[in-house]
Amino acid sequence: MARTNQERFDEAVKYIKDKIDAGLAAEVQQKITAQPGVTKDLAGAELSLKGHGFHFSSNDKNMALRGLMLCQMAYFRPPHAQFNYCDNDVLDATRLACKGKTEALIQADIRLYLKKPIRHLADVADAAKRVKKVEGVVDAVHRQIADDNVSKAPVCYHGVSAWLFAAGMVSKRWYAREGLKIDGNTANQQLGQGVTVKESDWGAIPEGYVWNIHRTNDPTTCHWGVSLGNGIAAACNNTDSSPGLPPLNYIVGNTAYGQFNFVELCNILNANAKYGGSTAKNTGNIVVKKINPMNEAALY
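Structure (tokenized):
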């Protein structure tokens, strides 16, 4: 006897609860039923596999795939996400992508909706070194930790978002809500307020910390990146020159994505007109802050 749509929905929630995480399962159910006009019956209908030609011989794999699609529906649609990033075509792409995957690999995709249980600051620095290709369009729904592109034309906080995800410091739950709407006006809300770093310590921000440089008294004029340790940093979309100073010397990369001496960048921004600087006033124009992603409440 064929399952009803509600039974399909309930079984997918139970699969997440039993095989992945009970808290995630409860939140997925809450998110789905909070969507305007959505019932378990309607959501269950979207989890159909046989009707789309993707029903597998392994029932466990079918359950895993439905669990993954349910997570996508819960987090990549309003009210959790700003817009609907998970339409029927996206779900079809998920079905197709999972065709050659084992149940264990699909479970790993579901676990991307949770932060990695074991995380290290070095993971963030490693991600900022590895994820550096400035190409392609980011498909957040199907994004994988192994992906090594930022995007075709990244803004600084897009790079930070990609690196935090690649390091397991944020989940797809964060990516769907915060990562997809982040901008200069709201970046502190999504990434954290941070702790002010005095000028003598600019070159000593620990490896794996997120840093934020903003114009004094104007947090929305800002630049974001990650410390690689030993005074070296990585960032995207860099302002790398100011009158009266040599241009930023890139160790790796260029303006779009680069690794460089952090103090050199700070000095350039201090003298840059965007940050209130000039050849006559090239100090005191910026505030530098650091954020430890290991214990930042804004990251989930």
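The longest helix spans residues 59-75. The longest strand covers residues 218-229.
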